[in-house]
């Protein structure tokens, strides 16, 4: 585990005991810092108490001795309304931080790379770590991707630390020692936490607020990102634009189905169709950003290309699950906003689309561009009425309420059509109305796929024997 002598004997509060919270408690104990911790969930508190952790109601914490509050990123400290523990911290003048701030206090012999964007940051983080590993370089991939950076020792050298950073983490970042940063894109999301586009951009762009920053890779496909690119021209020594829509001078971009390098001047370097597990424009942007940063750090072009070809997509991100007869089953549960779902819809044809969940108030009009690709829509979750109202006169649509029902009906319809097609779970919504998180939703879809596939195979074998 990571050693940070500067926090020894300091006192912290830790609120929210998911994966990051537990890693933070273990880190503080390892570094001989004291703490008080709490979680809103009763069963979670009971579990941590049984494991010997110091669980105390936050009103009874030693606020006058507290150095900082490590608050789970998902718990609001400002919008839409501050959590009670955030109000207590503000009342006592206690800084609110995340585990990323604790990492930044360490004396690391590593290159720290931050990755953010509305969509694609998990795939980009994992892909960049994979490129380093395939090239024989040591790397850690952590952060919003699901593993706290505090869980690692960071003692291997040389080392690249790839950190996926959400807007929730960045808005609280007080210490930034990143050496490199990727900002992929910006489209409306998290309007409950960032009520205006300006506030959302402000939170995201904090990824560049590092005096140690040497290189920035910036997607330039949206108007706000183009504006940011112009503003950053003289703020970092190396600024590399990437695009799937345009051909920026001295940039990395997509043209005629190829990844094109005009920063180092190598021209067309890779046919995108050779990257079997990275389909769609969104993954093309991810590849361009990873290529740019890996090349900057000296990874050979051919090594990067081979890694792009062999990389397999992360779970729940346009993940192929199975093929039943002529129907592909695709799990894109990570698509929790409209923009992400647009990218999934652009990647397939003849789609039987499962959509819905906890609606984020995204405008639905961008989805209309993909109606020619959609055979039928199946709605689930608390947002059913929103999607039914929007699409009822545009395409065949059916209310299914639950994922189980939507899967059964959509697969039946797709198999009946007798043409190659796709059953696509791409909800365009958060999952919390019916599931614990998007992974739970995606795993439920995969379980439905697996059970159905096995049942059909069993029937086939029985008929053969008969």
Q: Could you describe the 3D structure shown?
A:
- This protein is α/β, with parallel strands linked by helices.
- The chain folds into 3 domains: 93 residues, Rossmann fold; 207 residues, Mur-like, catalytic domain (UDP-N-acetylmuramoyl-L-alanine:D-glutamate ligase, 3-Layer(aba) Sandwich), CATH 3.40.1190; 147 residues, Mur ligase, C-terminal domain (Protein-Tyrosine Phosphatase, Chain A).
- Helix content is 33%, strand content 20%.
- It has 14 helices and 19 strands.
- α12 links the parallel β17 and β18.
- The mean pLDDT is 95.
In short:
Helix content is 33%, strand content 20%.
Task: Give the key terms.
Rossmann fold, alpha/beta, UDP-N-acetylmuramoyl-L-alanine:D-glutamate ligase, 6-stranded mixed beta sheet, 14 helices, 3 domains, Protein-Tyrosine Phosphatase, Chain A, 466 residues, 9-stranded mixed beta sheet, 19 strands
CATH-level-2 architecture of the largest domain:
3-Layer(aba) Sandwich
The share of residues in helices is: 25-40%
Number of domains: 3
The CATH class designation of the largest domain is: Alpha Beta
Q: What's the arrangement of strands in the largest beta sheet?
A: 6-7-5-8-9-10-11-12-13
Radius of gyration over all CA atoms, rounded? 23 Å
Category from helices, strands and their pairing = alpha/beta
Mean pLDDT score: 95
CATH topology of the largest domain: UDP-N-acetylmuramoyl-L-alanine:D-glutamate ligase
Taking the alpha carbons of the first and last residues, their distance comes to: 59 Å
Q: Quote the beta fraction.
A: 15-25%
Contiguous helical run count: 14
Per DSSP E runs of 2 or more residues, the count of β-strands stands at 19
As residue ranges, the low-confidence spans are none
Largest sheet: 9 strands, mixed
Broad shape: globular
């Amino acid at each position: 585990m990571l050693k940070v002598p500067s926090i020894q004997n300091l006192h912290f509060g830790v609120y929210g005991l998911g994966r990051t919270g537990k890693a933070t408690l273990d880190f503080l104990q390892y570094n001989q810092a004291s703490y008080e911790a709490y979680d809103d969930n009763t069963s979670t508190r009971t579990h941590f108490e049984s494991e010997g952790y110091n669980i105390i109601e936050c009103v009874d914490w030693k606020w006058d001795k507290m150095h900082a509050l490590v608050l789970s990123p998902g718990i609001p400290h400002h919008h839409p309304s501050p959590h009670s523990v955030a109000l207590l911290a503000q009342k006592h003048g206690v800084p609110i931080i995340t585990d990323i701030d604790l990492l930044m206090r360490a004396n690391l012999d590593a290159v720290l790379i931050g990755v953010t964007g509305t969509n694609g940051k998990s795939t980009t983080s994992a892909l960049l770590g994979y490129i380093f590993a395939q090239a024989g370089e040591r790397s850690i991939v952590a952060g919003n991707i699901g593993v706290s950076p505090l869980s690692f020792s960071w003692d291997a050298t040389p080392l690249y630390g790839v950190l996926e950073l959400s807007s929730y983490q960045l808005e609280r970042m007080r210490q930034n020692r990143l050496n490199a940063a990727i900002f992929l894109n910006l489209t409306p999301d998290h309007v409950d936490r960032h009520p205006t586009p300006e506030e959302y951009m402000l939170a995201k762009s904090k990824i560049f607020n590092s005096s140690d920053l040497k290189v920035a890779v910036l997607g330039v496909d949206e108007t706000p990102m183009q504006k940011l690119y112009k503003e950053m021209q003289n703020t970092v020594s190396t600024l590399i634009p990437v695009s799937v829509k345009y051909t920026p001078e001295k940039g990395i971009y997509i043209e005629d189905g190829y990844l094109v390098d005009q920063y180092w001047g190598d021209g067309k370097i890779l046919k995108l169709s050779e990257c079997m597990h990275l389909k769609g424009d969104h993954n093309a942007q991810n590849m361009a950003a990873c290529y740019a940063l890996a090349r900057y750090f000296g990874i050979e072009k051919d090594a990067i290309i081979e890694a792009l070809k062999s990389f397999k997509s992360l779970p729940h991100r346009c993940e192929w699950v199975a093929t039943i007869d002529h129907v592909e089953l695709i799990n894109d549960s990570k698509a929790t906003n409209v923009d992400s779902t647009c990218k999934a819809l652009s990647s397939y044809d003849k789609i039987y689309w499962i959509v819905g969940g906890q609606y984020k108030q995204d405008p639905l009009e961008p989805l209309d561009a993909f109606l020619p690709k959609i055979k039928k829509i199946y709605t689930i979750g608390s947002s059913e009425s929103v999607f039914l109202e929007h699409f009822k006169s545009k395409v065949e649509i059916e209310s299914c309420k639950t994922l189980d029902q939507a899967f059964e009906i959509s697969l039946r319809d797709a198999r009946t059509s007798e043409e190659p097609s796709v059953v696509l779970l791409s909800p365009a919504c958060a999952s919390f109305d019916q599931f614990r998180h998007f992974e739970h939703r995606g795993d439920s879809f995969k379980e439905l796929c697996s059970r159905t596939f096995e049942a059909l195979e069993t029937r086939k074998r029985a008929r053969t024997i008969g």
